Amino acid sequence: MRRALQAIMISAFASPVLAEAPSFQLPIDCELGETCFIQNYVDTDPSAAHRDFTCGPLSYDGHKGTDVRLISLADMEAGVAVLAAAAGTVTATRDGMADIASTAPNAPDLEGRDCGNGLVIDHGDGWETQYCHMKNGSLSVSNGEKVAAGATLGEVGLSGRTEFPHIHMSIRRAGKVVDPFAPEPRAACGPSDDSLWADTPEYVGGGLMQAGFASDIPEFDAIKAGLASPPTLPADAGALVMWGFAFGTQEGDRMRFRIDGPMGWSHEQEVEFDKSQAQLFRASGRRKPPEGWASGSYKGRITLMRGDAVLGEEVLSVTIAR
């Protein structure tokens, strides 16, 4: 009975694809799993709860698109192109909104402007794509302009209602949202044979985006801004800390830390998460010993675990020199 009810709910919420759809490409110039990650998918749950097309949690209530995120503000500032997912004609644009997290104390009023800077492309036969949260001043197309698939539209930004730099792309047909990963009504969760992607991205249910060493526990804002891991630390550093920055974590996931240094020195800790979060960081390490740090190379490994599965792993090193 529960399975049958779930099938009815999925069928009722999904948008029917009534005509042959365009083939869509990823709307961003980045390398998935390395320099960018899919943070959120279309919400396929019609209730106040949420779920993605795999029945996983990478969405939120009422979310109507695919969010491809950058790791840091530094990546955004360096410039990452937003690309047309398919050929078409630009029918609407907006630019001029500041790049600022919507949770910041000085964030602007977003009434009716949640999308931030962005645009809409008409692909014909009722199909259109909308692109949101683009960088202020970056839009390079105008209303009425025809664009080819893969054409640069502007850059990824932090405008509108968002807490991290990303491009949100919605696909609609006749005004109804279509999930490109699972466009047709169906009873089962998981990958679909009728994906609208030209090259369907692999579903990744969470992962480790970045890791680094530091001489103290860093501020989360510094990590989100693009904190770099130093190649060296002084022998009188107050602590040796390793940190990991992750997305899509669930309650019960674990982050495992291990550092190995000269003369058999080591540190190991495993931290379990007590709630699910869209993004988080954790840090682990030790304070400086009374005699100071031994000179040499310290090698670190951070592993993000879900049950017995490894969601991500980073291996890094830092040199301590007197």
Automatic annotation (TrEMBL):
InterPro entries on file: Cell_wall_metabolism_enzyme, Dup_hybrid_motif, M23ase_b-sheet_dom
GO molecular function: metalloendopeptidase activity
UniProt keyword annotations, A-Z: Signal
The keyword Signal appears for this protein: yes
SUPFAM superfamilies: Duplicated hybrid motif
Signal peptide residue numbers: 1-19
Pfam families: Peptidase_M23
Domain M23ase beta-sheet core span(s) in chain numbering: 75-180
Domain of life of the native organism: Bacteria
Keyword Secreted tagged: no
Listed PANTHER family: MUREIN HYDROLASE ACTIVATOR ENVC, PEPTIDASE-RELATED
Protein's name according to its UniProt entry: Peptidase M23-like protein
Lineage, broadest ranks: Bacteria, Pseudomonadati, Pseudomonadota, Alphaproteobacteria, Rhodobacterales
